Amino acid sequence: MAPETLKQVLESTDNIADTFRNTDINWQPYVFPDEYTNWIEEQRAVHESVAVVDQSVHMEVLDIKGPDAIDLLEYVCVNNFEKARTGEPPQAINYVACNPDGYVISDNIVFHLGENEFKSVGAEWPHNWIRYNAEAGDYDVQTEVTYHPDMYGQQDPENFRFQVQGPNALEVMEEVVDGSLPEIPFFQMDTIEIDGVETYALSHGMAAMPGLEIFGPHEYHDEVLDAIFNAGDQYGIRQLGSKAYKTGKIGSGWFVASVPAIYDHDELDGYREWLGADSREASLSLGGSFDSDDITDYYMTPMERGQDHMVDFDHEFVGREALEEMDQERERVTLLWDAEDVVNVYASLFGDGPTNKFIDMPDVANQWSSIHYDKILKDGEVVGLSKYPGYLVYERKFLSLATVDLEYSDPGTEVTFVWGDQTDKRRVERHDPVEIGATVAEAPYVRGGRRQM
């Protein structure tokens, strides 16, 4: 009998870490094209002029409403919701959820849009955690998934969602809005009007460039996008495909995903029984050279993800006691790959003998795994994990977000990491693993308008 829950999936395998490492990626949330024009010019537009990305259809949207909405959200995440209790909407909160041991389940952006009314946008992992706790706890709250990327082509989302970013982003938006564009501090919100359509605006820039994320009624999607293109034409505006969009996050220091910390803790047994065998949590695809039989070795803390400033101990939340006692062992950094070593990987394709793992450009790893972990070495010992790799043409570098032991986290430290994936994935070709040199740099590495959330 086929498993029906995540708990049954775990019971059906000897080692879930090994199962995930040998699972091919079977789902791609980026339902928009890889490129609209050319990924190199799309990356350059973000850094040199202005770019727009249509975020309307690739993220799940969860509505949370009711008198206990704040109590629920505050309990299942590390963030303090005091400003939602006392301040006026709209507001945005970079929501981070942890398990009882203080390891991250996932993160999203939660928008406070009205009294007892919230909308969470992003991955489904934190949404499942919110929904489960809403049902299992004594909360007067209603939750509803109003859009999921699987609905693409069958149902429109409630809202259009565009991100306009780059050195000329605010000049473009100044022309797009009715009246004058309000000054919005970083990661703060306001409302604007575009051709009479009330639109929310969040000051935000995922590629470390200044910009706005705007959203409003989806029926005006085409009209608003056309207005952005018309205003941006003089600056050479480009629409980002998934290649340029995904790689921009590396320079901005945002960890896209780590294994959700839900597979081992006894207190989460009910949650594993609630999650279906068809959930994304039940079919992860782990890639990279790091290989451990212990699934908890793939978990990450808020500190090593660079999210420690979001943890607020002035309220009760899942994982609080563990985080209060936890010492930071690793630091979020950027690895700058050695160019000669990278060229040698490509050169292996043109000589005799085994080849090395091919390096896709610019989105290095997400074509063959959903979550990536390469082991970082210093003097032959594992001292960290290289997590999210890619190429940025405006830096002329391959780089990756990583987490390393504190003693090796200083900028300029030389390390190596192992490039390869010795598993049975059909999407991974036969190859010999190879060490690539890297230099530790700060994260965020690209600066140009983004500050700490």
UniProtKB/TrEMBL annotation:
Superkingdom of the source species: Archaea
Record: residues binding substrate: E213
GO BP term, example: methylation
Database matches in Gene3D superfamilies: Probable tRNA modification gtpase trme, domain 1
Transferase among keywords: yes
Signal sequence, start to end: none
Domain GCVT N-terminal: 33-253
Pfam families: GCV_T
Single annotated GO MF: methyltransferase activity
Keywords: Methyltransferase, Plasmid, Transferase
Protein name stated in the entry: Aminomethyl transferase family protein
